[in-house]
Design a protein that fits this description.
342 residues; alpha+beta; 12 helices; 7 strands; globular
């Protein structure tokens, strides 16, 4: 019957998705089959499907998956069939930019491959950039498994972006944060990836200019998320195991002024009367910057606590340096002044 044929197709589909490690889609299909069997009272067919579901859920959180990267490709040249068109390509799993370029060069031997937009005298050019998908769903709860969030970030997507950091002036200043703009480029496709084909044409392009204060806010948000993730990944390790993974590196980069300028750079760049007078149009974002700095300052002690538990004895001087610097540079100077002026 038609119903039986449809059931066979559903079963083939969820088995194929499972072989491709797309367990989320396998779960969706098993749910459809379970609902069909409930309506037709074929309860004996439900337990195996629920068992499959349980295995798929377990695979999502327990097994390591690698996701394909995305590339923006623009064709220019009369010898190229797609002259004037732009596409988003979905690469193969674990295919990086260099490997993708090699593959494209083999296919378009008559063209020059470029990874920048600098002018060229070549007649046939293929411009290639790595782009990042804009997730259709963002989970802010960092306690949710990174494996789940990684899947959502790379699947069911049709907007892709890359950023180009530029300075507003031609002369280099003593504080690079102050004149650093982020020019974001967005590419929209009609359909979503993944799909049956590995490239989709770009149907719309948009841009967004992020001012220096908002750039700093985005950086602090990313720092907060990275540190929170590192804390979650390390908090259950054995004491004195010495395996601090990325936790020590993140703490060092956020706390130590010798690494990336430390909090003093933000204070000197934006949190002063001189900035408010020179850039009144950005003052509205300063309170958000203060909130992000305070939020990060409240998370860092938790990172230091976990780091102190799992660090090796040899790392004690490094840990003590971080703890002292955090107290002196963050709490005693920056955060105290922020809270007093809020």
């Amino acid at each position: 019957t038609e119903a039986e044929r449809k059931e066979v197709l559903y079963r083939d589909a969820f088995e194929m998705f499972a072989r491709g490690q797309d367990w989320e889609r396998s779960i969706e299909i098993t749910k459809i089959l379970v609902e069909r069997h409930e309506k037709t009272r074929k309860f004996d067919k439900i337990p195996p499907l629920l068992e499959n579901q349980a295995n798929f859920f377990a695979s999502i959180v327990n097994q390591e998956r690698f996701f394909a990267e995305y590339f923006h490709v623009k064709f220019q040249g009369k010898m190229l069939a797609d002259d004037g068109l732009e596409f988003i390509y979905r690469g193969y799993v674990q295919e990086d930019l260099r490997s993708f370029i090699v593959r494209m060069q083999e296919k378009y031997k008559e063209a020059t491959i470029k990874i920048d937009d600098k002018p060229t005298t070549d007649e046939n050019v293929v411009y290639i950039k790595t782009v990042r998908p804009v997730p259709a769903m963002v989970i802010d709860d960092l306690s949710v498994s990174e494996k789940i969030r990684a899947y959502l970030a790379m699947n069911n997507v049709n907007i892709f972006t890359y950023s180009l950091l530029k300075r507003s002036g031609t002369e280099k200043t003593d504080n690079e944060f102050r004149d650093l703009w982020n020019h974001k480029y967005f590419f929209h496709t009609k359909d979503t990836f993944p799909c049956q084909i590995r490239r989709l044409q770009v149907v719309e392009k948009t841009t967004e200019d992020v001012n220096p204060v908002c750039c700093a806010i985005e950086t602090l948000k990313q720092s907060y998320a990275s540190l929170k993730k590192a804390i979650i990944e390390n908090e259950h390790k054995q004491p004195r195991c010495g395996d601090t993974s990325d936790l020590g590196r993140y703490l060092g980069g956020m706390i130590d002024a010798g690494v990336n300028g430390g909090p003093k750079k933000y204070k000197d760049a934006f949190l002063n009367k001189e900035f408010e007078k020179e850039f009144p149009q950005f003052v509205q974002y300063v309170s958000q910057l203060k909130d992000q700095l305070i939020s990060l300052s409240e998370l860092i002690p938790e990172g230091l606590r976990v780091h102190d538990i799992i660090r090796s004895e040899q790392m004690e001087p490094f840990h003590q340096h971080l703890a002292k610097t955090f107290q002196e540079e963050w709490l005693n100077k920056l955060i105290r002044s922020l809270k007093e002026n809020k």
